[in-house]
Amino acid sequence: MKNPQRHLPRVLGVLGLLFVVAQLVPYGRDHANPKVTKEPAWDSPQTRELARRACFDCHSNLSRWPWYSNIAPVSWLVESDVHEARHKLNFSEFDKPQRKASDAIDEVREGGMPLWFYTMMHGEAQLSPAEHEALIKGLEATFGSAEPGANGKHHDEHGEH
Fold first, then answer.
1. Which of 34, 35, 29 is nearest to 67 (CA)?
2. C-alpha distances in angstroms, 106 versus 29, 38, 51, 133?
3. What is the rounded CA–CA span in Å between residue 59 and residue 122?
4. Which conformational region is residue 123 in: left (phi greater than 0), alpha (psi within -120 to 50 degrees), or beta?
5. N or C: which end of the chain has fewer CB within 10 A?
């Protein structure tokens, strides 16, 4: 019977080499946040603060990039998640068309947002039950059932009433 542990140094060496090579891939380390062009007309400073804590790292141009977001392959996942989240809803670009805010409200209401693995790494994003309810009510008051940025009013393609 052969000793399988004799291959362990070789396997670890290959894994280490793959890790080093992965660091050479440029994707996932461009952490320049785009300019904030327009935020929604928040119903209150409290709603904005709760959204900042629970949502802004992915759904705004004010992302904070933790140390692990510079290390592949985790950096690839973080970059992809932020890009996809901003595409769905970006609190920093309310001068552009956004996904329906009611979808975001439903995600928060149903516990789908913030993502469980995000809150595990970012304790400040873990909202108490009272804060969770306040965020839902604040998002409803900010967006109602209208498109983000509309605040219950109809805007033309340039954001004018």
1. 29
2. 32, 23, 14, 12
3. 15
4. alpha
5. N
> Each residue of 129-161: pLDDT tens digit?
999 999 999 999 998 744 444 443 333 333 333
Residues 6+ apart with CB under 8 A from 76: 25, 27, 28
Contact partners, residue 46, CB within 8 Å, separation at least 6: 134, 138
Q: What is the pLDDT of residues 60-94, one digit of tens each?
A: 999 999 898 888 888 888 999 999 999 999 999 99
Q: Which pLDDT tens digit goes with each residue over 96-133?
A: 888 767 788 999 999 999 989 899 989 999 999 999 99
Q: Distance between CA 38 and CA 159 in Å, rounded?
A: 11
First to last CA, the chain: 80
